[in-house]
Amino acid sequence: MASAKLQERVPIRRTAWKLADLVVLSLLLALLAHRATSPLQCSWLAVVALVCEAWFMLLWLLNMNCKWNPVRFQTHPDRLSQRGGDELPAVDVFVTTADPELEPPVVTVNTVLSLLALDYPAGKLACYVSDDGCSPLTCYALREAAAFARLWVPFCRRHGVDVRAPFVYFSSHPCKADRDFFREWTFIKNEYDELVDRIEKAEESSLVQSDNELADFLGGNRRNHRTIIKILWDNSKSKTVEGFPSLIYVSREKRPKFHHHFKAGAMNVLTRVSAVLTNAPIMLNVDRDMFANNPQVILHAMCLLLGFDDEVHSGFVQAPQIFYNALPDDPFGNQTEVMYKKLGYGFAGLQGIYYNGTGCFHRRKVIYGVPPDCTTLVKPRTKGSPSWEELQVKLGSQKELIESARSIISGDMLAVSIVDLSSRIEAANEVAACSYEARTCWGQEIGWVYGSTTEDILTGQRIHAAGWKSALMNTNPSAFLGSAPTGGPASLTQYKRWATGLFEILMSRNNPILVSICKRLQFRQCLAYLVIDVWPLRAPFELCYSLLGPYCLVTNSSFLPKASEPGFSIPLALFLTYNIYNLMEYMDCRLSARAWWNNQRMQRIISSSAWLLAFLTVLLKTLGLSETVFEVTRKDKSSAEEGHDPGRFTFDSSPVFIPAAALAMLNMVAIAVGAWRVVAGAVEDKRGGPGVGEFVCCCWLVLCFWPFVTGLVVGKGSYGIPWSVKLKAALLVAAFVHLFCRGT
Ligand SMILES: O=c1ccn([C@@H]2O[C@H](COP(=O)(O)OP(=O)(O)O[C@H]3O[C@H](CO)[C@@H](O)[C@H](O)[C@H]3O)[C@@H](O)[C@H]2O)c(=O)[nH]1
Ligand SMILES: [Mn+2]
Fold this sequence. Notes:
Largest sheet: 8 strands, mixed
Number of domains: 2
Pfam family, one: Cellulose_synt
Structural class: alpha/beta
Active site: 132, 456
Distance between the termini: 79 Å
CATH superfamily of the largest domain: Spore Coat Polysaccharide Biosynthesis Protein SpsA, Chain A
Strand content: 5-15%
Bound molecules: uridine-5'-diphosphate-glucose, manganese (II) ion
CATH class of the largest domain: Alpha Beta
Membrane topology: Multi-pass membrane protein
Helix content: 40-55%
Organism: Urochloa decumbens
GO cellular component, one term: endomembrane system
CATH topology of the largest domain: Spore Coat Polysaccharide Biosynthesis Protein SpsA, Chain A
Number of strands: 13
């Protein structure tokens, strides 16, 4: 069998789920119909409820569209190995890091080592680390890591080590009993421990003074410094057969006057620097906290990059984002496993999975904005390759860069650039300068797109808009494992940043609806993107709806049918089916009921805190009153504290907690008022006072906001909500109650 398929596209059957989708949809429709025809319809309360419920139905439709025909891709790397190593394209691997304090260098080093040791010809791999922190510590740590890689990579290859991030590998004892092996294992482990020790003991100030190679870092700071590029290891110069991939440290130039565009800016610099050095046709991008967990990842990705008749099917190949430090039952609702399995596979069945910022393989030409048709193998290129001048306008005028881009655009996947890396340092410095992008298309039609703190979704969308499809890569074991933030504040910061970026996309000319009208973003794919993009927009609707229950209890009114009315069964059935549907999704993904509860609870908390703040931030930005920034996610820290329960919600005085704390308080107050009225027999029946429905709404919300309830009432230290937040929340509640009462 000469051409056994490298990949198979397997549609996933979901007839029962489709039926359930329709049941929920019809209940939503029934609720709307009931509301529109009920006698209460003219009160503003009913209008607010109607608008919110219409929005929920729209969301449900968007979700249905996205999940409707999911697919999975099966890859066969064993069939690839029948091809020789010469038939594999080169891959440039990019790792981004930004802050040596929030992102300890030891973690970065582990990520890099796991990548250097992947099963792929060493001469075809190169690893670039971008350091936005411009930290001599990071550079030092990587240089030491390169020295350790000399032992580590051959060791992994020789013994077929499963997980090639040393901190994981050495966290358990080897099961092989062989004495020689054990001796070697102990030796390498000692070397690794010493490496960690050296990195952890190193101090910035003494490093730059004593170490000549690190003198470049003198006198700069992370916001204002020139480019520093260091070839830490050049594989082409290695004499041994058992080499390991080249390792290059890049800290791009930063000047206060130039916007550096956060991670997107860093990725664009890495793209150009790697273009003048190794110029691989495929690029792999990994966050610094995400190690390669499956040594065969690149081979799996190659099955999808080389395995289709037409390249258009895999403009990029994305591996799911999965976490290794995941707490049991996902207490902070940030493992997004169900989202991946339900929405992600659904996307994969449309124009393809979204780009998730890490664990993704891109074709370099896709990043250069080349549309798919001028690359099909069948049709000869009609337009011809772009002229020198054209490329100069788009990519900037660096000569080596344009030359390398021409070779990429001509489409030769197997070309290897054999240059002495150190001879190209000057060119690399030129393209890493902060003024290089002025008057070029970088950040617009070329490279990672600027203007959103969720640059990944935006960049992926641009690629889909050019007409490319993307493929979802599923491997067993998982391709990469990352670290999820632990603790309340870190999770909410992360959600806030995502939502801010998503709303920036919606409010810009890159809005998927516009893009699908003007470009080649498919209509259903556009709707699927909207499911994610509208996160922050959900906040105001969900907030309004969650105020209805307390409003009714406080003001002795109602917005839902009474238990005695026939209409009551509609919201009841909807509430039950919707929650059972979600619970079943978690069961289907082999997750616990507890994980479902935590996630659905976190959805309410995130919506009223992170998404709401993101919504307001972007509104302010649109009015020109503030700027959005990329806040780097803090990685596990406090877990070392004594008696610390990592699964418990913690608080700080950030404004993100105020609205959620206020909602928790308001619902408790409302229940108290409502209960008092029932006891006193003061529920007014004629005016339609609150019924079971309103009580259930408030109780449900109190349960959802339980971490806030305990934080308000009993929590001590970081488990308690700080007084400043409590006070502001209380003021909000008082203002609301006042408004409510005046309104009636
Ligand atoms: O100015 C910056 C800021 C961040 N980063 C890097 O960007 C990556 C992602 O940052 P992190 O704080 O870890 O964010 P996460 O919330 O974990 O990231 C998710 O969301 C981001 C978009 O908001 C994507 O870029 C990421 O790939 C995706 O994993 C890290 O490697 C950082 O070092 C930079 O290189 N420069
Ligand atoms: Mn991260």
